[in-house]
Amino acid sequence: MANDFLFTSESVSEGHPDKVADQISDAILDAIFTQDPRSRVAAETLTNTGLVVLAGEITTNAHVDYIQVARDTIKRIGYDNTDYGIDYKGCAVMVCYDKQSNDI
């Protein structure tokens, strides 16, 4: 019995909420580093029907409109219709970033 184990994995494809969230997080990171390459960024994104949550810890001198970056990314990906579950014009975007700890 000691050698028995169960291996599971998940594979997501284009359009999966995880992929959309990754694109938004990448765009946030790019926008910050464009203005302040010395920033410290731990940005996570969660997406659900009609909702985007931006959370994590960021220390930067950059001034980024996080909501607009999220909406622009959603639009670029092609989510422009509420029938898709999320659209760039109507989705709610919550920004929940804190300053990163000085200990990091």
Walk me through what this model shows.
- With 104 residues, this protein is α+β, with helices and mostly antiparallel strands.
- The protein has one domain: GMP Synthetase, Chain A, domain 3 (2-Layer Sandwich).
- Helix content is 30%, strand content 24%.
- It contains 2 helices and 3 strands.
- Strands 1-2-3 form a 3-stranded mixed beta sheet.
- A hairpin with a 2-residue loop joins strand 1 and strand 2.
- Helix 1 packs across helix 2.
- The termini are far apart.
- The mean pLDDT is 90.
Structure, briefly:
The chain has helices spanning 17-35, 66-77, and strands spanning 40-48, 51-59, 92-98. With 104 residues, it is α+β, with helices and mostly antiparallel strands.
Topology:
Blueprint: H1 17-35, E1 40-48, E2 51-59, H2 66-77, E3 92-98
Parallel strand pairs: 2-3
Antiparallel strand pairs: 1-2
Characteristic terms for this protein:
2 helices, 104 residues, alpha+beta, 24% strand, three-stranded mixed beta sheet, GMP Synthetase, Chain A, domain 3, flat
